[in-house]
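ugh ok fine here u go
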Amino acid sequence: MEKTEQAKLARQSLQYYLQHREVMPLPADGDHLQQAAGAFVSLKKHGQLRGCIGTFLPTKQNVAEEIIHNAVSAGTEDPRFWPVTLSELPEIEFSVDVLSSPEAINNIEQLDVQKYGIIVKSGAKTGLLLPDLDGVDSVQEQIEIARQKAGINTTEDIKIFRFTVSRYK
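structure:
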């Protein structure tokens, strides 16, 4: 399968960082990556998650910069995993999710685990879960996992936001 430009950029970024210990410069091409958007970079090794870091709102000038920085973070700073090594890079699959702007919802009937990712907020605590994830089959499950990620107790009131993603592999 031919890799997308977004997934190639994520791989190049992490490889560059592992070789040079600095963030890769922004490539000159990629005009369609010039809009600003949040982006998540996910790494899988032999089908198992190996790192995932992202931003739900833009923090950089454009999506290309989001991908470059988040790929490095996913490979080197995800607290659930040891940093990726250069020797294991060929075994890693990259995917990039570019997020739409989050919108507040009033009713969980407005959610669909296949179509929408969610953000749950309670005070300063925020949890995010991407859409269409293996093993997440119901809206209640999606909300519970996002609560757990944020450390939000089930007795705490939450605000829920939904977003869509464009997924690139």
